[in-house]
């Protein structure tokens, strides 16, 4: 079972570097309370941007350049691109068994991810639900990576007892 | 599916790593097949039979549960 959709093996290391950079910046921002460093204020093109106003009507800016701080956009991109490279780069010895572990792990991660989302739709509301949606952008990749590497490590452990 | 892969491997004095290299898969794959944890593809079954100079049915055998 060969697929042409996997990334080259060398991107795995690149993925780890990007992902850990994203994780470090996120941790740094959360621990120190740093938000929006000034030098990252820049003009970005917005297909859609709605601003919520507590007093008054919400305003929408569509298909225009807007002022924005890109700190969290950079973190998001580092985590997602890094995560994709880690998850979907070929294994050193990618073969049909590892492809099966990969497919099983992807199914497992998808079920768990949407299970958590269904639970959240039913029991989590308002701003808390928004936080769940933000986390949900990354959880499917994270769950897949954890599950895939866990079953891979487990099958390597079995192998260690054999010659 | 029942398999005598481990026996064939021992007869030919191959380690899992040797066999894996010959058929172009990982050691995990050979181990999983021997343990009955993975049903391999036809191509890999044919490659293994070719290496051992036997028929595929000599290494792999269907069990009742495969029909259920």
From TrEMBL, chain B:
Keywords: DNA-binding
Domain HTH cro/C1-type: start-end pairs: 5-59
Signal peptide residue numbers: none
Coiled coil start-end: none
PROSITE patterns (alphabetical): HTH_CROC1 (PS50943)
Protein name, per record: Transcriptional regulator
The organism of origin for this protein: Mesonia mobilis
């Amino acid at each position: 079972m060969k697929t042409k959709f996997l990334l080259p093996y060398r991107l795995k290391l690149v993925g780890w570097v990007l992902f850990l950079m994203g994780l470090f910046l996120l941790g740094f921002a959360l621990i120190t309370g740093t938000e929006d460093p000034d030098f990252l204020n820049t003009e970005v093109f917005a297909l859609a941007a709605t601003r919520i106003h507590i007093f008054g009507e919400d305003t929408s800016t569509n298909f225009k350049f807007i002022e924005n701080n890109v700190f969290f956009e950079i973190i998001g991109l580092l985590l997602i691109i890094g995560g994709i490279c880690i998850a979907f780069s070929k294994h050193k010895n990618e073969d049909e068994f590892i492809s099966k572990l990969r497919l099983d792990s992807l199914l497992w991660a998808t079920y768990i991810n949407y299970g958590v989302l269904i639970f959240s739709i039913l029991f989590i509301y308002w701003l808390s639900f928004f936080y769940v949606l933000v986390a949900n952008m990354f959880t499917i990749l994270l769950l897949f990576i954890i599950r895939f590497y866990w079953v891979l490590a487990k099958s390597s452990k079995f192998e260690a007892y054999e010659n | 599916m029942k398999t005598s892969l481990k026996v064939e491997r021992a007869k030919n004095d191959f380690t899992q790593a040797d066999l894996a290299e010959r058929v172009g898969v990982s050691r995990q794959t050979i181990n999983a097949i021997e343990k009955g944890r993975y049903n391999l593809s036809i191509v890999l079954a044919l490659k293994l039979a070719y290496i051992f100079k036997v028929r595929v049915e000599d290494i792999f055998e269907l069990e009742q549960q495969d029909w259920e």
